[in-house]
Amino acid sequence: MAIARQKGGLQTPDGVRETYGYAMYVLGFQTGFNSEAEGVFDIFSALGSVPSDKVLYAIEPWCASHPDKKFSQAVLALAGTLRANHD
After folding, report:
1. N or C end of the chain: smaller count of CB under 10 Å?
2. Are 23 and 31 in contact (CB under 8 A)?
3. Is the pLDDT of residue 47 over 80?
4. How much is the pTM?
């Protein structure tokens, strides 16, 4: 996200190129999670529209404080928090 910001943020082509793979991962995670969750559920609905961008912003602090962890662990941590807040 820091590199994307240096390149103009998520509203610029250069910024999007920096985060595109991560955004696609988030969307795939969302599809898989939602299809397997009990009932009708959208794990990232609390974040509003354009969930992939919102997830990237939401996990940025977690990633900064856990530099030794993988991106997938950050997404799982956020999903766990959102699911717990929903129940």
Report:
1. C
2. no
3. yes
4. 0.84
